[in-house]
Design a protein that fits this description.
Blueprint lengths: L12 H14 L9 H4 L3 H11 L2 E3 L3 H8 L4 H4 L2 E5 H5 L12 E5 L8 H8 L9 E5 L6 H10 L5 E5 L10 H10 L14 H11 L8 E7 L3 H11 L65 H25 L5 E5 L35 E8 L4 E5 L2
Parallel strand pairs: 1-2, 2-3, 3-4, 4-5, 5-6, 6-7
Antiparallel strand pairs: 7-8, 8-9
Helix pairs in contact: 1-3, 10-12
Bound molecules: zinc ion (2 copies).
The site of one zinc ion has 6 residues, from α11 and α12.
Length: about 400
Protein backbone atom coordinates (compact mmCIF):
# COMPACT_ATOMS: atom_id res chain seq x y z
CA UNK A 1 0.00 0.00 0.00
CA UNK A 2 1.34 3.45 -0.90
CA UNK A 3 -0.09 6.96 -0.85
CA UNK A 4 1.62 9.05 -3.52
CA UNK A 5 0.78 12.71 -3.24
CA UNK A 6 -1.62 14.09 -5.83
CA UNK A 7 -2.84 10.73 -7.08
CA UNK A 8 -6.66 10.75 -6.93
CA UNK A 9 -6.84 6.94 -6.75
CA UNK A 10 -5.46 7.06 -3.23
CA UNK A 11 -6.78 8.44 0.01
CA UNK A 12 -6.05 12.14 0.68
CA UNK A 13 -3.50 12.81 3.41
CA UNK A 14 -6.17 14.41 5.61
CA UNK A 15 -8.20 11.19 5.64
CA UNK A 16 -5.09 9.14 6.38
CA UNK A 17 -4.33 11.49 9.26
CA UNK A 18 -7.78 10.94 10.76
CA UNK A 19 -7.34 7.16 10.45
CA UNK A 20 -3.92 7.31 12.10
CA UNK A 21 -5.27 9.42 14.97
CA UNK A 22 -8.09 6.91 15.46
CA UNK A 23 -5.63 4.03 15.58
CA UNK A 24 -3.32 5.82 18.02
CA UNK A 25 -6.18 7.10 20.15
CA UNK A 26 -7.21 3.59 21.15
CA UNK A 27 -3.87 2.62 22.71
CA UNK A 28 -3.43 4.30 26.09
CA UNK A 29 -0.82 5.01 27.25
CA UNK A 30 0.68 5.24 23.82
CA UNK A 31 3.86 3.25 23.46
CA UNK A 32 6.21 4.28 20.70
CA UNK A 33 5.85 0.78 19.28
CA UNK A 34 2.20 1.62 18.52
CA UNK A 35 3.32 3.50 15.42
CA UNK A 36 5.82 0.86 14.27
CA UNK A 37 3.48 -0.83 11.81
CA UNK A 38 2.24 2.48 10.42
CA UNK A 39 5.76 3.71 9.84
CA UNK A 40 6.44 0.73 7.55
CA UNK A 41 3.62 1.60 5.13
CA UNK A 42 5.23 4.55 3.37
CA UNK A 43 7.23 7.67 4.05
CA UNK A 44 4.09 9.77 4.00
CA UNK A 45 2.22 7.57 6.49
CA UNK A 46 5.30 7.41 8.72
CA UNK A 47 5.40 11.20 8.77
CA UNK A 48 1.69 11.42 9.58
CA UNK A 49 2.06 8.78 12.32
CA UNK A 50 4.98 10.61 13.93
CA UNK A 51 3.11 13.90 13.79
CA UNK A 52 0.04 12.35 15.42
CA UNK A 53 2.11 10.51 18.02
CA UNK A 54 4.04 13.59 19.12
CA UNK A 55 1.07 15.96 19.03
CA UNK A 56 0.71 15.21 22.76
CA UNK A 57 4.07 15.16 24.48
CA UNK A 58 4.63 14.51 28.16
CA UNK A 59 8.23 14.67 29.32
CA UNK A 60 9.40 15.34 32.87
CA UNK A 61 13.05 14.27 32.82
CA UNK A 62 15.72 16.57 31.45
CA UNK A 63 17.76 13.88 29.75
CA UNK A 64 14.70 12.44 28.00
CA UNK A 65 13.62 15.92 26.88
CA UNK A 66 17.05 16.51 25.33
CA UNK A 67 16.86 13.23 23.45
CA UNK A 68 13.33 13.88 22.18
CA UNK A 69 14.34 17.34 21.02
CA UNK A 70 16.94 15.71 18.74
CA UNK A 71 14.12 14.29 16.60
CA UNK A 72 13.89 16.37 13.46
CA UNK A 73 10.72 18.47 13.07
CA UNK A 74 9.36 17.49 16.46
CA UNK A 75 8.80 21.10 17.51
CA UNK A 76 6.36 21.61 14.65
CA UNK A 77 4.36 18.51 15.64
CA UNK A 78 3.73 19.13 19.35
CA UNK A 79 0.40 20.79 20.19
CA UNK A 80 0.04 19.77 23.84
CA UNK A 81 3.14 19.80 26.00
CA UNK A 82 3.34 18.60 29.58
CA UNK A 83 6.73 19.16 31.18
CA UNK A 84 8.53 20.80 34.09
CA UNK A 85 9.49 24.43 34.55
CA UNK A 86 13.08 23.26 34.99
CA UNK A 87 13.14 21.85 31.44
CA UNK A 88 11.69 25.09 30.05
CA UNK A 89 14.26 27.12 31.99
CA UNK A 90 17.04 25.11 30.36
CA UNK A 91 15.62 26.03 26.94
CA UNK A 92 15.46 22.42 25.83
CA UNK A 93 12.42 23.13 23.68
CA UNK A 94 12.18 26.36 21.64
CA UNK A 95 8.69 27.11 22.95
CA UNK A 96 8.34 30.42 21.12
CA UNK A 97 8.69 28.60 17.76
CA UNK A 98 6.15 25.89 18.58
CA UNK A 99 2.46 25.95 17.66
CA UNK A 100 1.42 24.93 21.14
CA UNK A 101 -2.25 24.95 22.01
CA UNK A 102 -1.78 23.85 25.59
CA UNK A 103 1.11 23.87 28.01
CA UNK A 104 1.30 22.20 31.41
CA UNK A 105 4.24 22.97 33.68
CA UNK A 106 5.06 21.19 36.91
CA UNK A 107 6.70 23.81 39.15
CA UNK A 108 7.56 21.58 42.09
CA UNK A 109 11.30 22.21 41.74
CA UNK A 110 10.90 25.97 42.18
CA UNK A 111 11.51 27.25 45.72
CA UNK A 112 9.45 30.24 46.82
CA UNK A 113 12.42 32.61 46.81
CA UNK A 114 13.25 31.98 43.15
CA UNK A 115 9.72 31.94 41.75
CA UNK A 116 10.01 35.49 40.38
CA UNK A 117 13.28 34.67 38.59
CA UNK A 118 11.73 31.55 37.06
CA UNK A 119 8.70 33.48 35.85
CA UNK A 120 10.85 36.15 34.20
CA UNK A 121 12.97 33.44 32.62
CA UNK A 122 10.25 31.26 31.11
CA UNK A 123 7.37 33.58 30.20
CA UNK A 124 9.14 35.41 27.35
CA UNK A 125 9.38 32.01 25.59
CA UNK A 126 5.66 31.26 25.70
CA UNK A 127 4.06 31.20 22.23
CA UNK A 128 1.04 33.41 21.51
CA UNK A 129 -0.87 30.35 20.28
CA UNK A 130 -1.57 29.06 23.80
CA UNK A 131 -5.25 28.57 24.61
CA UNK A 132 -4.67 26.48 27.72
CA UNK A 133 -2.06 27.03 30.43
CA UNK A 134 -1.63 24.96 33.56
CA UNK A 135 0.99 25.60 36.24
CA UNK A 136 0.92 23.05 39.06
CA UNK A 137 2.76 22.74 42.39
CA UNK A 138 3.55 26.44 42.54
CA UNK A 139 4.94 27.73 45.86
CA UNK A 140 2.45 30.62 45.65
CA UNK A 141 0.40 32.67 43.18
CA UNK A 142 2.10 36.04 42.93
CA UNK A 143 1.14 39.38 41.38
CA UNK A 144 4.06 39.04 38.96
CA UNK A 145 2.82 35.66 37.77
CA UNK A 146 -0.68 37.01 37.08
CA UNK A 147 0.75 40.09 35.34
CA UNK A 148 2.94 38.01 33.04
CA UNK A 149 0.08 35.69 32.12
CA UNK A 150 -2.21 38.63 31.37
CA UNK A 151 0.48 40.26 29.26
CA UNK A 152 1.72 37.31 27.23
CA UNK A 153 -1.11 34.78 26.97
CA UNK A 154 -3.94 36.83 25.49
CA UNK A 155 -5.61 33.89 23.72
CA UNK A 156 -6.12 31.78 26.82
CA UNK A 157 -9.44 30.00 27.24
CA UNK A 158 -8.33 27.84 30.15
CA UNK A 159 -6.03 28.82 32.98
CA UNK A 160 -5.07 26.73 35.98
CA UNK A 161 -2.67 27.93 38.67
CA UNK A 162 -2.28 25.57 41.54
CA UNK A 163 -0.39 25.47 44.82
CA UNK A 164 -2.04 22.75 46.89
CA UNK A 165 -0.36 19.78 45.17
CA UNK A 166 2.67 20.54 47.31
CA UNK A 167 0.75 19.59 50.44
CA UNK A 168 1.00 15.89 51.01
CA UNK A 169 -0.26 13.60 53.74
CA UNK A 170 1.87 10.70 52.56
CA UNK A 171 4.30 10.88 55.50
CA UNK A 172 3.85 12.11 59.08
CA UNK A 173 2.30 15.13 60.83
CA UNK A 174 5.69 16.88 61.08
CA UNK A 175 6.27 16.62 57.34
CA UNK A 176 2.71 17.76 56.66
CA UNK A 177 3.33 20.81 58.85
CA UNK A 178 6.68 21.56 57.20
CA UNK A 179 5.13 21.40 53.73
CA UNK A 180 2.31 23.71 54.79
CA UNK A 181 4.83 26.31 56.06
CA UNK A 182 6.79 26.45 52.79
CA UNK A 183 3.93 27.49 50.51
CA UNK A 184 1.11 30.02 50.40
CA UNK A 185 -1.79 27.59 50.23
CA UNK A 186 -4.37 30.00 51.70
CA UNK A 187 -3.59 33.53 50.44
CA UNK A 188 -6.46 35.41 52.12
CA UNK A 189 -4.80 37.93 54.43
CA UNK A 190 -1.33 37.49 52.95
CA UNK A 191 -1.22 41.22 52.20
CA UNK A 192 -3.53 44.25 52.68
CA UNK A 193 -4.83 44.08 49.09
CA UNK A 194 -6.26 40.62 49.73
CA UNK A 195 -7.27 40.63 53.37
CA UNK A 196 -10.77 39.33 52.61
CA UNK A 197 -12.06 36.68 50.23
CA UNK A 198 -13.90 39.30 48.17
CA UNK A 199 -10.78 41.46 47.80
CA UNK A 200 -8.70 38.46 46.77
CA UNK A 201 -11.23 37.51 44.07
CA UNK A 202 -11.30 41.10 42.80
CA UNK A 203 -7.51 41.18 42.80
CA UNK A 204 -7.35 38.06 40.61
CA UNK A 205 -10.05 39.43 38.31
CA UNK A 206 -8.24 42.77 38.02
CA UNK A 207 -5.01 41.15 36.90
CA UNK A 208 -6.74 38.86 34.40
CA UNK A 209 -8.95 41.52 32.76
CA UNK A 210 -7.03 41.38 29.49
CA UNK A 211 -7.87 37.69 28.99
CA UNK A 212 -11.13 38.37 27.17
CA UNK A 213 -11.48 34.78 25.90
CA UNK A 214 -10.98 33.12 29.27
CA UNK A 215 -13.72 30.55 29.90
CA UNK A 216 -12.34 28.28 32.63
CA UNK A 217 -10.32 29.56 35.56
CA UNK A 218 -8.93 27.22 38.22
CA UNK A 219 -7.11 28.72 41.19
CA UNK A 220 -5.56 25.97 43.30
CA UNK A 221 -5.52 27.81 46.62
CA UNK A 222 -7.83 27.63 49.61
CA UNK A 223 -10.10 30.60 50.25
CA UNK A 224 -10.40 29.67 53.91
CA UNK A 225 -8.09 31.22 56.48
CA UNK A 226 -4.53 29.84 56.68
CA UNK A 227 -5.10 29.34 60.41
CA UNK A 228 -7.54 26.51 59.66
CA UNK A 229 -4.75 24.17 58.60
CA UNK A 230 -2.39 25.44 61.29
CA UNK A 231 -4.97 24.92 64.05
CA UNK A 232 -5.97 21.58 62.60
CA UNK A 233 -2.36 20.37 62.77
CA UNK A 234 -1.82 21.84 66.25
CA UNK A 235 -5.04 20.44 67.65
CA UNK A 236 -5.26 17.04 66.09
CA UNK A 237 -1.74 15.77 65.48
CA UNK A 238 -1.24 14.98 69.15
CA UNK A 239 -4.77 13.97 70.07
CA UNK A 240 -4.72 10.93 67.86
CA UNK A 241 -1.29 9.87 69.01
CA UNK A 242 -2.04 10.15 72.73
CA UNK A 243 0.57 12.91 73.02
CA UNK A 244 3.28 10.93 71.34
CA UNK A 245 4.95 12.82 68.57
CA UNK A 246 5.54 10.28 65.88
CA UNK A 247 7.75 11.49 63.08
CA UNK A 248 9.03 9.81 59.98
CA UNK A 249 12.54 9.53 61.45
CA UNK A 250 13.91 9.09 64.94
CA UNK A 251 16.17 12.14 64.84
CA UNK A 252 15.85 15.27 66.99
CA UNK A 253 14.29 17.82 64.71
CA UNK A 254 12.08 20.85 64.63
CA UNK A 255 11.02 23.47 62.12
CA UNK A 256 11.35 27.26 62.33
CA UNK A 257 11.13 30.37 60.12
CA UNK A 258 14.23 31.19 58.07
CA UNK A 259 14.88 34.47 59.89
CA UNK A 260 14.92 34.56 63.70
CA UNK A 261 13.32 37.57 65.40
CA UNK A 262 15.35 39.81 67.68
CA UNK A 263 13.36 39.19 70.82
CA UNK A 264 13.37 35.50 70.14
CA UNK A 265 9.66 35.14 70.91
CA UNK A 266 7.74 35.34 67.70
CA UNK A 267 8.95 32.73 65.28
CA UNK A 268 10.61 30.70 67.99
CA UNK A 269 10.91 27.08 66.97
CA UNK A 270 7.90 25.22 68.26
CA UNK A 271 8.93 22.18 70.21
CA UNK A 272 6.35 19.46 70.47
CA UNK A 273 5.51 17.45 73.54
CA UNK A 274 6.99 14.02 73.50
CA UNK A 275 5.67 11.80 76.22
CA UNK A 276 7.28 8.47 76.78
CA UNK A 277 5.15 5.47 77.51
CA UNK A 278 5.25 3.72 80.84
CA UNK A 279 7.10 0.83 79.28
CA UNK A 280 10.08 2.94 78.26
CA UNK A 281 11.04 4.53 74.99
CA UNK A 282 8.55 4.37 72.24
CA UNK A 283 9.92 2.77 69.16
CA UNK A 284 9.57 5.00 66.14
CA UNK A 285 7.48 3.08 63.66
CA UNK A 286 7.99 2.86 59.96
CA UNK A 287 6.25 5.46 57.84
CA UNK A 288 2.54 5.03 58.24
CA UNK A 289 2.93 1.70 59.96
CA UNK A 290 0.84 2.69 62.98
CA UNK A 291 -2.84 3.27 62.48
CA UNK A 292 -3.64 6.87 63.32
CA UNK A 293 -0.15 8.30 62.89
CA UNK A 294 -0.79 9.31 59.31
CA UNK A 295 -1.86 12.93 59.03
CA UNK A 296 -5.23 13.85 57.68
CA UNK A 297 -6.64 17.09 56.35
CA UNK A 298 -9.43 19.41 57.50
CA UNK A 299 -11.55 17.78 54.78
CA UNK A 300 -11.57 14.61 56.84
CA UNK A 301 -12.05 16.31 60.21
CA UNK A 302 -15.46 16.74 61.79
CA UNK A 303 -14.32 19.59 64.05
CA UNK A 304 -12.96 21.63 61.14
CA UNK A 305 -16.08 20.95 59.14
CA UNK A 306 -18.29 22.12 61.96
CA UNK A 307 -16.23 25.24 62.68
CA UNK A 308 -15.47 26.38 59.13
CA UNK A 309 -17.31 24.28 56.55
CA UNK A 310 -20.42 26.28 55.81
CA UNK A 311 -18.73 29.68 56.03
CA UNK A 312 -15.99 28.61 53.62
CA UNK A 313 -18.49 27.19 51.13
CA UNK A 314 -20.38 30.49 51.18
CA UNK A 315 -17.14 32.42 50.64
CA UNK A 316 -16.20 30.21 47.69
CA UNK A 317 -19.56 30.83 46.06
CA UNK A 318 -19.30 34.57 46.63
CA UNK A 319 -15.76 34.69 45.25
CA UNK A 320 -16.85 32.76 42.15
CA UNK A 321 -19.60 35.35 41.63
CA UNK A 322 -17.07 38.21 41.92
CA UNK A 323 -14.95 36.64 39.21
CA UNK A 324 -17.99 36.00 37.01
CA UNK A 325 -18.99 39.66 37.32
CA UNK A 326 -15.56 41.00 36.41
CA UNK A 327 -14.47 38.48 33.79
CA UNK A 328 -17.33 38.45 31.28
CA UNK A 329 -16.30 35.37 29.31
CA UNK A 330 -15.99 33.03 32.29
CA UNK A 331 -18.13 29.88 32.27
CA UNK A 332 -16.41 27.83 34.95
CA UNK A 333 -14.50 28.70 38.13
CA UNK A 334 -12.68 26.27 40.41
CA UNK A 335 -11.10 26.82 43.83
CA UNK A 336 -9.26 24.31 45.96
CA UNK A 337 -11.36 23.61 49.01
CA UNK A 338 -11.05 21.74 52.29
CA UNK A 339 -14.82 21.55 52.45
CA UNK A 340 -15.77 20.09 49.16
CA UNK A 341 -17.12 16.73 50.14
CA UNK A 342 -20.75 15.95 49.45
CA UNK A 343 -21.07 14.55 52.95
CA UNK A 344 -23.12 16.84 55.22
CA UNK A 345 -21.42 18.14 58.38
CA UNK A 346 -24.39 16.93 60.41
CA UNK A 347 -23.42 13.35 59.73
CA UNK A 348 -20.10 13.69 61.46
CA UNK A 349 -19.24 12.83 65.03
CA UNK A 350 -17.53 15.92 66.47
CA UNK A 351 -16.21 14.35 69.69
CA UNK A 352 -12.57 15.38 70.21
CA UNK A 353 -11.19 11.85 70.42
CA UNK A 354 -13.13 10.72 67.40
CA UNK A 355 -12.60 13.73 65.24
CA UNK A 356 -11.74 12.02 62.03
CA UNK A 357 -14.54 11.61 59.60
CA UNK A 358 -15.43 7.98 59.25
CA UNK A 359 -16.59 7.66 55.73
CA UNK A 360 -16.02 6.24 52.38
CA UNK A 361 -12.49 6.98 51.09
CA UNK A 362 -14.01 8.35 47.92
CA UNK A 363 -14.72 11.59 49.78
CA UNK A 364 -11.18 11.92 51.12
CA UNK A 365 -9.04 14.83 50.04
CA UNK A 366 -6.77 14.19 47.12
CA UNK A 367 -4.43 17.14 47.12
CA UNK A 368 -2.50 15.91 44.12
CA UNK A 369 -5.56 16.55 42.00
CA UNK A 370 -6.26 20.02 43.34
CA UNK A 371 -9.31 19.09 45.43
CA UNK A 372 -11.49 21.30 43.33
CA UNK A 373 -14.74 23.02 44.24
CA UNK A 374 -16.34 23.72 40.87
CA UNK A 375 -18.75 26.53 40.08
CA UNK A 376 -20.71 26.91 36.87
CA UNK A 377 -21.70 30.31 35.55
CA UNK A 378 -24.83 30.98 33.57
CA UNK A 379 -25.40 34.38 32.00
CA UNK A 380 -28.80 35.84 31.22
CA UNK A 381 -29.59 39.22 29.74
CA UNK A 382 -29.39 41.06 33.02
CA UNK A 383 -28.28 38.58 35.62
CA UNK A 384 -25.52 36.11 36.28
CA UNK A 385 -26.20 32.85 38.04
CA UNK A 386 -23.45 30.86 39.73
CA UNK A 387 -23.93 27.49 41.34
CA UNK A 388 -21.72 24.91 42.96
CA UNK A 389 -21.32 21.73 40.98
CA UNK A 390 -19.25 19.85 43.59
ZN1 LIG B 1 -9.45 19.60 62.16
ZN1 LIG C 1 7.59 12.56 57.84
Amino acid sequence: MAFPAGDSKFLPAEIVEVIVQEVLGRSQPRAFSSIAALSLVSRQVRHIALRAYFSKLSVHRLIRASRINDIRNICSWVRHLSTTIQIVEKNVFPLYKMNLGSLELDCESVPAFSLAASILLVFPHFPETLVSLKLTSLPRITHLLLEEIARRCLNLRELELSVVQRLSTDCCWACFEDLSCCIEHSPVGSDPSSNTVGKLAMLYAGYLQSLVKLQCLSMGVFLSSPTILKDHIDNHSLVREDNQFIGCTSDDSFSAPHTPTIDGQEGRPRVRLYRKSAGGDIAIPEKGAVIGCRPYTPSECALCWEAHGLRTREDELMAAMRLAQDLRSLELVRWSSWFNSKIAPGWLDPSPMNDRVVKDRSGVADLRHGQWATFEIQRGERRIKVWRRT
